[in-house]
Design brief:
Strand order of the largest sheet: 4-5-6-7
CATH class: Mainly Beta
Radius of gyration: 20 Å
Strand content: 35-45%
Number of helices: 2
C-alpha cells in the first residue's frame, strides 16, 4: 500500500504520516528554534541586511535587484548561459546575504546580495565587476554571481531557501540549503524535490514526490518552516496537492487541500496557509494546522484572485486580489487585502490599480510595505499600509509566479524570537 495514496496506490486520499513521524517532523533538529536560548540570545538578522527586493524577469531571462526605499534598479543578472532560463521565483537567505533564483526551464542561480561578499578576483579586471543598474553583464563575468546548478529539470518553479542552523557562538546561520522541485519530463511518474548546498550549489539529495504526477503539472508553490521542512503545493485545478519534505529529505506529510491553491505561506506560529485560486470555492484562504490536520477558512468576505501570501509583523496575512466584495469595479481595480491570522477575517480592500486585477505576486519589505507584481501590465507595486500611498515601477518584465521577493517571509516563519 502506498502510504501517500489510496489503498490501491492510485492517488492521495488523506493526510498520513509514517510511524513515529508527524506533520511537525519531530526528528528535525534546528538550533534556530524559537525556544532555543542561544537562538533567542542571538536574535534576528537586522532589517538593514534586507534593503532590496528581487524580481524574476521571466521573458528577459534575468532577475532585477530593486532598492526597496527608492524603487530604483540596482542590478540585473542573467540566470542561465543561453539567456533562456525563464526565471520565475526568487528567495532570499535568512541572513540577507544571498538570493536564489529558480528557472522554469531548469537550473538554480545564487547571487550575492551584498557587494562585500562578491568575488572581486573572478576576472582579471581591477575592482568589483557587477551590474549596478538595469543592464546585465554577460554570463560568467558578473562577480556577484556565486554559482549555478543546472539540475536538469525541464520544468521547475517551487523555490525556498532553508534557514539552516544558527551557530550560538558566531550568531551566524550555517548549513543553509536551497530547495526546489520540478519534473525532468512531462511524462515523469512523479515530480522530484531537490535540495542543494547553499554554499556551492552541490547536490544534497532528492525526494520523489509520490502523488505529484508530472503530467498534472509541476509543483509551483514552496515555503520553508522553522524546522527547515519544505512545503509544496500544486496549483492545477482538479489535482490539488500539499506535501511536506523534512530537512532530512523525507516525505512526512501528504494532504489534499480543500481548494485550488494559488499561494503558500508559513505564519509565525507554524501554520500553513493557502490562498484560493480565482473562483476556487467560497473562501479567500485556508489555514492548515500540521499538528491537528485541521483546516479553517477565511470566508467572511471572499476576495478573488490568483495571489501569493505573506504575513506582516502584525498578524495580517496579505494577498493580492482581482475582485473584493467591498472594492471598486473597473479596468484597473485590483489591489491587496489581508486575512487576520487570529480571527481569519478578511480585511478591507486597498486598491493598487492593477490592470484588470492581474496582480499576483506578493511580498513584505522590512519597512512593512506590501509589494505586488503584475505580469500583465509589467509593473511592480508598493503599498504603504500606514499612509495608503502606492508607488509603481513601470516597464519591468515580471514572472507570473509569486515568490519571497524580499526575504521577509522566511524571516517571519523561521527567525528565532520574531
Amino acid at each position: 500500500m502506498d502510504p501517500w495514496g489510496s489503498a490501491d496506490g492510485s492517488g492521495p486520499t488523506s493526510a498520513t504520516d509514517p510511524p513515529g513521524e508527524s506533520g511537525a517532523d519531530t526528528e528535525d533538529t534546528d538550533t534556530s528554534s524559537a525556544d532555543d536560548p542561544a537562538g533567542v540570545a542571538c536574535g534576528c538578522t537586522p532589517a538593514e541586511a534586507f534593503p532590496n527586493v528581487w524580481i524574476a524577469n521571466d521573458v528577459g531571462g534575468t532577475v532585477s535587484k530593486i532598492d526597496a526605499e527608492t524603487m530604483e534598479i540596482r542590478g540585473r543578472f542573467v540566470t542561465r548561459a543561453d539567456g533562456l532560463g525563464r526565471p520565475v521565483s526568487t528567495a532570499v537567505s535568512i541572513d540577507g546575504s544571498a538570493v536564489a533564483v529558480s528557472n522554469f526551464a531548469g537550473g538554480l542561480l545564487k547571487i550575492w546580495a551584498r557587494p562585500d561578499l562578491c568575488d572581486a578576483n573572478l576576472n582579471t579586471l581591477a575592482g568589483l565587476q557587477t551590474s549596478v543598474n538595469g543592464a546585465p553583464m554577460a554570463w560568467g563575468t558578473d562577480e556577484c554571481v556565486d554559482w549555478y546548478a543546472p539540475l536538469g529539470f525541464t520544468s521547475q518553479v517551487a523555490l525556498a531557501w532553508g534557514p539552516g542552523d544558527l551557530d550560538p557562538m558566531t550568531c551566524e546561520y550555517v548549513d543553509q540549503v536551497v530547495w526546489t522541485a520540478g519534473c525532468f519530463t512531462n511524462s515523469d511518474a512523479s515530480a522530484t524535490v531537490v535540495r542543494v548546498n547553499g554554499d556551492d550549489g552541490s547536490p544534497l539529495g532528492d525526494t520523489v514526490l509520490s502523488g505529484f504526477p508530472c503530467d498534472e503539472g509541476t509543483p509551483t508553490l514552496g515555503a520553508v518552516d522553522r524546522d527547515g521542512g519544505f512545503w509544496l503545493a500544486n496549483t492545477t485545478p482538479g489535482n490539488e496537492r500539499l506535501a511536506r519534505v523534512s530537512a532530512q529529505g523525507n516525505l512526512t506529510l501528504f494532504e489534499v487541500p480543500p481548494l485550488v491553491p494559488a499561494g503558500i505561506a508559513i505564519d509565525a506560529e507554524g501554520m500553513v496557509w493557502l490562498s484560493a485560486n480565482n473562483g476556487s470555492g467560497p473562501t479567500t484562504a485556508a489555514r492548515f494546522d500540521p499538528m491537528s490536520f485541521v483546516w479553517t477558512f477565511a470566508d467572511n468576505l471572499v476576495a478573488r484572485g490568483n495571489s501569493g501570501l505573506v504575513e506582516d509583523d502584525y498578524g495580517h496575512m496579505w494577498l493580492s486580489y482581482a475582485t473584493h466584495p467591498q472594492g471598486a469595479v473597473g479596468t484597473a481595480w485590483g489591489g491587496a487585502t489581508y486575512v487576520d491570522t487570529e480571527t481569519l477575517h478578511v480585511g478591507p480592500p486597498a486598491s493598487l490599480g492593477c490592470a484588470a486585477g492581474h496582480c499576483t505576486g506578493i511580498s513584505i519589505d522590512f519597512a512593512g510595505r506590501v509589494w505586488s507584481t503584475s505580469a500583465v501590465d509589467g509593473r511592480v507595486y508598493r503599498y504603504d499600509p500606514e499612509s495608503s500611498a502606492v508607488a509603481t515601477i513601470e516597464d519591468i518584465q515580471v514572472s507570473p509566479y509569486s515568490s519571497d521577493l524580499s526575504g521577509w517571509a522566511l524571516h517571519n516563519a523561521a527567525c528565532p524570537g520574531n
